[in-house]
Specification:
- Strand 1, helix 1 and strand 2 (32-37) form a beta-alpha-beta unit.
- Helices cover 17% and strands 26% of the residues.
- It has three helices and ten strands; from the N terminus they run E-H-E-E-H-E-H-E-E-E-E-E-E.
- The strands form three sheets. The chain has a four-stranded parallel beta sheet. The protein has a four-stranded mixed beta sheet with strand order 8-7-6-10, with no helix packed on it.
- The chain has one domain: FAD/NAD(P)-binding domain.
- The protein is an alpha/beta fold and 149 residues long.
Length: 149
């Protein structure tokens, strides 16, 4: 990567974020790419997660890209949640306090689970009661945008 390489930060390390990262790397091999995902490790096929939880598939069978995949390609993988976007300064801040500069910011944050209206599922404030879980994580961050277009 050169000093003039475009700096691209991709927020989201799910299937869409990974696919975008793969395509960008293939089309612009010199791009300075950083992927930010709030789960440890590389990308995996979240649609196959129920099979792992049911015990009919191994966790490594749904892996799409392990940490070495990113390293081999010179792609920086940051396992933290995105906290704040400063559009004027072109910086993304993570919950760990890292400030990641970008020329292009891609938001590939995925979806949130839809919960059925089952009685007793949610407690005060709509939060799940202890012991109730979803297969996907909800977006736990509300971005604060600074700057203007």
């Amino acid at each position: 990567m050169t000093a003039s390489a475009p700096r691209v930060v991709v927020v989201g390390n799910g299937m869409a974020g990974l696919r975008f990262t793969q395509e960008l790397h293939d089309l612009q091999p010199g791009a300075d790419i950083t992927v930010v995902g709030d789960e440890p490790g590389g990308a995996y096929n979240r649609a196959q997660l129920p099979l792992v939880l049911a015990g009919t598939a191994r966790a490594d069978s749904i892996e799409l890209a392990d940490q070495s995949w990113y390293a081999i390609r010179g792609i920086r993988l940051v396992t933290a949640a995105a906290r704040r976007i400063d559009r004027a300064a072109r910086l993304l801040e993570t919950d760990g306090g890292q400030a990641l500069p970008y020329d292009t910011l891609v938001l590939a944050t995925g979806s949130a689970p839809v919960l059925p209206g089952a009685a007793g599922l949610a407690g005060p404030g709509g939060r799940l009661r202890p012991g109730a879980v979803t297969f996907r994580t909800k977006l736990r961050v509300s971005f604060k945008y600074e700057g203007s277009d």
